[in-house]
Amino acid sequence: AGTQGAHVILTDLQDVLTETTQANLRANMQALRPSGDAFAGTVSLQALAWGDGPDRLERAPPFDYVLAADVVYRPELFAPLKWTLLQLAGPGTQVLLAYTRRRSQEEWFFSSLMEDFTCSAVWRGCTGRTDEGKR
Q: A single Pfam family, by name (predicted)?
């Protein structure tokens, strides 16, 4: 997205954003622009824990898109995750969550999201078949 003009912020916990993570980002960005030309957009790494306010980020929300993968995994973090998503999103924001089902408590999290977001689900089972439906 950053190569196409978007301003992208990649977030994770502070202790995860090591020099290795930063080196990997630089290597990937270099691979995407072998000519050395500048991108129209930007890509940055920033620390953000669920429950932290977005005022720590270099750009202020709301964002056009919030993409999150493998973030629904500990029930005690469901409420802070939802709060953070609400802080990052605005009326036009699309939030895309990719996750692997681990436990039944996740149903509470997604039911809770439906109180504040319009939700659609795309399910992919072990067969590789995709079933799309409104929840």
A: Methyltransf_16
